[in-house]
């Protein structure tokens, strides 16, 4: 494990060519552990169950992450209100608790704390730039108070909203990273990855890339397109990628949220640790130096990324003490046919089976395609929202 000393900031590390490994998908990981509700996907666990969030941070740190991103995904006040968050916790309480937990664990190793903001219901409801920026401002006030090391604007489907977020985050004086949840087709208004990246850089982001919605190779391809666009424009930036841990070759422009398996039946699509080795190498070869994960990523996935890039980083993560390179620990197994699998070529050539008879190899996405400006569709969906249906459910319960 790398020695802990004076910590460099994110830009110093990237400028020197260091590989920065991000963490994984807290929302999905904590939902599976029983601390996040699927649907709202809000992070009140930071205040409600801090021990769960702290432990997951520690597992990612041990696996090789040197960024502890605050568990503040969807922690804006408008999102919490929109999704019926428990009134016991305000946005400020959740954001402060998340910052404290991330800092506590980051201080246990050579890790930085990143304060994160994400897309807002206010933007999707066509509220003004001023109103949307005010939402981001409330969050970064907490990040400044807690002195995070850098800022991340992540999970934006529309480049315009990401630009607004970057402009607010830049006022902090901290380095700013920005990632969109887009694929090769671009954002939901059809802005290409290259043009999106140029707009992010011009808005003030020093690190640009993508996260979520698509599998690792699709995301690496998208960041490659972003990199080409930035270079064509004569601009400079560092690049980041934090994809899904699911295979999604059948996804359209909205990614895995359109898959019929989303969100409760995605397990057959999970990448193996060996798939993660290939992802890490492809990302590195593309010129991406901030490499992490999003939904579906567990600590062992990040460990695989760290192990693949150990020659370049110069060290293995602490969690590798219990692993062994390319399954080397299997040499001690009692069964000879399992011992024979303790080699790289076996795992690289393996085509894992699903174990499900007649399991389809591809799905047909739902293809909703809802974007900002599709007012009629949004009003239709709003009319059937959980909040408006609640009186009917209450009445039904009373009648029984």
| Stretches with pLDDT under 50, minimum 5 residues | 374-382
> Which overall shape is indicated by the principal axes computed on the Cα atoms?
globular
The description of the largest β-sheet is:
8 strands, parallel
Average pLDDT, rounded to a whole number, is 91
The CATH fourth-level homologous superfamily: Homocysteine-binding-like domain
Question: Which percent band covers the strand fraction?
Answer: 5-15%
CATH topology: TIM Barrel
* Ends distance: 60 Å
Which structural category do the helix and sheet elements fall into? Answer: alpha/beta
* Number of helical stretches of at least 4 residues: 18
- Rounded to the nearest angstrom, the radius of gyration is 21 Å
Strand order of the largest sheet: 1-8-7-6-5-4-3-2
Residue share in helix: 40-55%
The second-level CATH architecture is Alpha-Beta Barrel
Main CATH class: Alpha Beta
Write down the secondary-structure element order: HEHHHEHHEHHEHEHEHEHEHHHHHH
Account of the 3D structure:
This protein has helices at 10-15, 26-32, 45-48, 50-63, 77-82, 91-106, 121-124, 129-145, 159-170, 193-203, 216-232, 273-286, 299-308, 310-313, 336-339, 344-349, 375-383, 386-399; strands at residues 20-21, 67-69, 112-117, 150-156, 176-180, 207-211, 238-242, 290-291. The chain is an alpha/beta fold and 400 residues long. It has a single domain (10-324), classed as Homocysteine-binding-like domain (TIM Barrel). Strands 1-8-7-6-5-4-3-2 form an eight-stranded parallel beta sheet. It starts with 9 loop residues before the first helix and ends with a helix.
